[in-house]
Amino acid sequence: MGLKKIILGALLTGLLSCPAFAQQADDQVYKDMLQAQHFILTYQEEGSPNLTRIVADGDTRLVRKSTNVKNGMVWSSKAMYRDGKLYSFFVDRGETKARVLALTDINREDLDPKEEWPKTYRMMALPKGLSVLAWGDSWRNNPISLTEPVFNNETKVLINGVEYTCNQYSSNILTQQGSTSGVITYNLLYKDGKLAKIQRYLQYDGREKMLDTLNIIELKKDYDVFELAPWGQPINVYKADAADLNDLMNNYVQVEVLGENKNDKK
Q: How far apart are CA 29 and CA 190, in angstroms?
């Protein structure tokens, strides 16, 4: 009898726990993809007319943003990390150029503040809504007062007449004493088995406020190699400005060209 009870108990435990595993199965696919650092993500922050695209392959990551023009949409490279270096793209008299800085120099005090290297660094991070699936992303510094999100439940929700499967997670906001002062809730909304939206809510002092909504256009591991080097023509790269003689005399020093070798012309 003892053995039968043990077997029956194990079966019941397995049956009861299956829904939780099933609910998070889709989430795990995306978690694995992001952790492997090989993906293409295109998203739109609700309320913004523009899209953001992040393409990653190992330590290499490229960030591009769209701009709506009369005849459609134009994509522009904004930031890239590769081989220990951070690149910032800009347009000078109609020509796309880039500046480069060793990542280890990001906190140098003599850098030209107009080049906004801290902003370029932050641009590399995945959006906050996706932190639930990529808490360990090296480009996002999560506040120490925020706990890692945990799974709550799965529900069905209706938004503008469209039904989504909602996988909900939550993070606690901790005080210095370690007590909970608020909660951030993440709703991962799936449509036809694909992640379509992520909503973030703040619950604080008995009130709830929506923080933001991400519309996920695509998030997948397979992409054309062109996405990591979309240079239509070679891009001249200059070293970051600092308080040295060349910069004081506006003699910008070119250090490399993107799109000049086979690795850049994929």
A: 13
- Per the structure block, which two tokens stand in for 130? 């996706």
pLDDT of residue 22: 46
Q: What is the pLDDT of residue 247?
A: 52
Comparing C-alpha atoms, which of 159, 128, 157 is closest to residue 141? 128
In this prediction the pTM is 0.86
Name the 3-class secondary structure at 205.
Answer: coil
User: What is the C-alpha separation between 203 and 182, in angstroms, rounded?
Assistant: 6
* Single-letter amino acid code for the residue at 17: S
In a 10 Å sphere around its CB, with 0-12 CB exposed, 13-18 middle and 19+ buried, how is residue 238 labelled?
middle
Q: Cα–Cα distances in Å, from 12 out to 19, 54, 116, 256?
A: 12, 43, 57, 63
The residue among 25, 28, 80, 32 whose CA lies nearest residue 55 is 80
Mean pLDDT of 81-108: 95
Instruction: Tell me the residue type at 37.
Output: Q
Residue 236 in 3-state DSSP?
strand
Name the amino acid, one letter, at 50: N
Pick the closest to residue 97 from 84, 78, 83, 114 (CA basis): 78
Q: For residue 68, count other CB atoms closer than 10 A to its CB.
A: 11
Kindly write down the DSSP assignment for every residue of 36-98, as one continuous string: TTEEEEEEEETT-S--EEEEEETTEEEEEEEEEETTEEEEEEEEEEETTEEEEEEEETTEEEE
Percent of the chain with pLDDT over 70: 85
Residue type, 65: K
List, for residues 24-76, the tens digit of each pLDDT value: 668 999 999 999 999 999 999 999 999 999 999 999 999 999 998 878 889 99
Burial of 231 (0-12, 13-18, 19+ CB in 10 A): middle
Residue type, 158: L
